[in-house]
Amino acid sequence: MNTLEISKAIQAGNVSLGIELGSTQIKSVLVTDDFSTIASGSYVWENKFEQGVWTYPIEEVWNGIQTSYTQMAANVQSKYHENLVHISAIGISAMMHGYLAFDKSDKLLVPFRTWRNNITEEAADKLTDLFDFNIPQRWTIAHLYQSILNQEAHVADLDFVTTLAGYVTWKLSGEKVLGIGDASGVFPIDETTGTYRADLLDKFNQLPEVVQYNWQTTQLLPKVEKAGVQAGTLTAEGAKLLDVNGNLAAGSLMAPPEGDAGTGMVGTNSVRKRTGNISVGTSAFSMVVLDKPLKALHRDIDIVTTPTGAPVAMVHTNNCSSDINAWVAIFKEFAARLGVNLPADQLYQTLFLEATHADPDAGGLLNFSYLSGENITKIKAGRPLFVRTPNSNFNLPNFIQTQLYAAFAPLKIGMDILVKDEHINTEAMIAQGGLFKTPVIGQQVLANALNIPITVMNTASEGGPWGMAVLAIYAKHHADNQNLADFLDTEVFKDPESMTLSPEPAGVAGYQEFIKNYQAALPVEAKAGDAINEKG
């Protein structure tokens, strides 16, 4: 589309909006019906560790959404000289899992508990045994049950429990609904019925600790919808919440809200069986769409779903790029002391390119990039830790390589379960995330770490909000009765540009040496969590 055609599309309201509330950024992306991004806006935020809980203030949710939307709308005005008044379809996505609990007056009862918290171990273990189904600590039902076990006062007043994407969609549309992919991080899903498993709900409701409450679990949880259906419309109140300037009209179709895992699958065209994708950022996760059930229950493998309800094996790690970002900030500060102001992209690229000169085993250096606990490696408290011996080859290339190696280490450990124990193979493994903005470097490290070919598409930098906008367009056009996989193949990814890198034998061997030393040194990381108290 040229500028005039885009202006006409904006006038006619033939544009769709995807908003994603990620771990470090809230981003709004406006796209035309040919899936081209025409405007965007963003807001940077960080979780806070307060009174033993990782959280974001609920006020900042709306400040961030409004800021990113205002930037996006200003972008529309400056580029196309049009006020953004009508949007045909809107989709909200956010960090999966977590716990937002409300009473009958819609009051938030406790601060938002994010996916990053490792505070529900007792509940997760008991529910896994009860259900014979893996319940991770970050799932909403684990948070709910842990609150019950802790005898927290707010539980008696519960009326509604949801995720972050579900909360925002509720406030914009009045509908208490979740997309099935996000809902699969709330409670186990029945692929046949397309909603929560009734047999497991019955088991939960019959627990002595649960029976004492006046509510029923089904009354607390959001309604489940698959991709492609209408999940309400933007209300007048919702339009005012989004657009503080008051230009946006009500009536936009609302797509079922999804988690960032679901939008990652859409953004990488990985919703068919035997396809898979990897998303890396503050956390990292791999998603493999299953064509058969796993042979065994694994505590490090989540069973979630695609946005259309197909079962997915998910390896989720709490930590990935945060420690890299912290070290890059140190280098930026040093450069500034020398009077050099380096743009972020140039700084990352310069440092990442140093890794091409590293030893295959990163010189014997070790790094644990744990800002929070890590379930896969059984680390309860995050203490970023860099370790070397006197004989390690300590230089800049090896240091940067170690940071990249460590970012993918928990994911590697989890993926080994699928590959070695379950013999799961995918026809494609597509990666996306900020670590791949510098071409080749991170992609090659990931291919070597997992010992599988990794593909990065040209849409990798578009990320979750673009994937959510695609789901919004799909909801708008679902009357065509085209399944999501076919829609993505024939409409969205008709001629995708991509690059695939295969594992390098020397790099694979070097990473194997690194991960062997990494796993042997895990007790050191655990001890650091025990010995070093959290500041404040």
UniProtKB/TrEMBL annotation:
PANTHER family per record: SUGAR KINASE (PTHR43095), XYLULOSE KINASE (PTHR43095:SF5)
CDD domains: ASKHA_NBD_FGGY_BaXK-like (cd07809)
Protein name: L-ribulokinase
Start and end residues of each Carbohydrate kinase FGGY C-terminal domain: 277-475
Family under the similarity heading: Belongs to the FGGY kinase family.
InterPro entries the record matches: ATPase_NBD, FGGY_C, FGGY_Carb_Kinase, FGGY_N
Protein origin, superkingdom: Bacteria
Biological processes, Gene Ontology terms: carbohydrate metabolic process
Alphabetized UniProt keyword annotations: Kinase, Transferase
Organism: Agrilactobacillus composti DSM 18527 = JCM 14202
This protein's record includes keyword Lipid metabolism: no
Carbohydrate kinase FGGY N-terminal domain residues: 16-242
Signal peptide span: none
A Pfam family assignment: FGGY_N
GO molecular function per UniProt: kinase activity
